Amino acid sequence: MSVNPMAYEAQFFGFTPQTCMLRVYIAFQDYLFEMMLVVESVILKKLDGFPNCKISPFQIRKSTEKFLLFMKEHFDKLFSKMEEVLLQLVLNIPKNVLLPEDKVHEQYPYSKEEFQALQDEINQLQQQYRAEASAGQALRAELEEQKAVRAELEKILQWFDGLENICREHGTGNLKESFAFLTQNSKKLQDVLKDVEEKSKKIKKHDQLL
Questions:
Q1: How far apart are the first and last CA of the chain?
Q2: How far is CA 44 from the centre of its chain?
Q3: What confidence tens digit (pLDDT) does each residue in 84-122 have?
Q4: 8 A C-beta contact, residue 6 and residue 16
Q5: Closest CA relative to residue 9, chosen from 109, 95, 104
């Protein structure tokens, strides 16, 4: 069998010419084996008509196998020549013939060097795309983080606005004075809380004594 891949022929026919020839070879070989079995069965039937014949079925089988081997050797030689002719003259696309789907290569021919340059450019563009995609992902992550920070800042501003409104309600417009006012009230609340806790402890002790 030919070792030439014949890829262009496979593109046109939809199968490799070698595969076609292999199937033809197997079909012929199967027919040859079947023919020899038929010949053997005919010989055995003919011998049944000669009771005094000393040829046994085993000898006939050996002769059939020997004749089959002889036929196969000659068949292989003939098929080899037939395969060579078919692959060259029937299943072969000439070098100067282009398939319709490959006409574009005739209009825009490229050398190996130009094709390699295009491949290098494509690889470079792919690397740039990956880098830009990675940078875009990092920017999106940073934008989400900035949104979260902005939301927290807005909460703080709202808290300051609320604090300022409380201070204004109590007649304190300056932020420093507001903090001083809050600090003073906080200390008063702490003192009240401490006084309440002490009174609570005294009440509990009094209840235990009772």
A1: 116
A2: 62
A3: 888 888 888 877 777 776 666 666 666 778 778 888 899
A4: yes
A5: 95
